[in-house]
Amino acid sequence: MLKEFRTFIARGNVIDLAVGIIIGSAFTAIVTSLVNDLVNPLLGIFIGGIDFSALSFGFGDAQFMYGNFINAVIKFIIVAWVVFLMVKAVNSMKKKDEPAPEAPKGPTELEVLLEIRDSLRK
Questions:
Q1: Alpha carbon distances (Å) from 76 to 56, 84, 94, 112, 122
Q2: Run of H or E residues at 94
Q3: Of 27, 33, 94, 113, which sees the most CB atoms within 10 A?
Q4: Residue of 76, 8, 71, 77 lying closest to 43 (CA atoms)
Q5: Looking at the predicted structure, is the pLDDT value of residue 49 above 70?
Q6: pLDDT digits (tens, 9 = 90+) for 77-103
Q7: Which domains does the chain have, with CATH numbers?
Q8: What is the pLDDT of residue 71?
Q9: Do 70 and 55 touch, CB atoms closer than 8 A?
Q10: Pick from 29, 53, 27: which is nearest to 41 by CA?
Q11: How many Å apart are CA 12 and CA 15, to the nearest integer?
């Protein structure tokens, strides 16, 4: 069982997935900074200086920070857009599969069978 697990982990797909997750988590810090330090102030200019992270309402002792949710949605949209652009760029760089060259035209199966029949008659 340990050998099977080692084989599973050593497969390229699992290692590629692990690398993707590590890079994705590091990318999260960049996106967080982008949203908090650039996008929110820019939106604040057009919306009148509103800082989304400060938006909240209280109910009893509970404080609902819906501004943080808005920030999370903005981050998600930015990440999804960047991933879309990255996939599109990688797909455009991939070598296009050239169509397989056509096999040289030879006699059809029927023609071969007719030739065999004619030679047997002789």
A1: 20, 12, 27, 64, 79
A2: none
A3: 27
A4: 71
A5: no
A6: 877 787 788 778 878 887 776 677 777
A7: 2-94 (1.10.1200.120)
A8: 77
A9: yes
A10: 53
A11: 5
Contact (Cβ atoms closer than 8 angstroms) between residue 90 and residue 81: no
**What is the separation of C-alpha 20 from the centre of its chain, rounded to a whole number of angstroms?**
10
Q: What is the DSSP string of 9-25?
A: HHSHHHHHHHHHHHHHH
Terminus-to-terminus CA distance in the chain, angstroms?
67
Q: At 37, which amino acid appears?
A: D
Entry pTM: 0.48
* pLDDT on residue 62: 87
pLDDT digits (tens, 9 = 90+) for 7-40: 776 776 777 788 888 888 888 788 778 777 887 7
> What is the spatial distance between Cα 111 and Cα 108, in angstroms, rounded to a whole number?
5
- C-alpha span between 22 and 16 (Å, rounded): 10
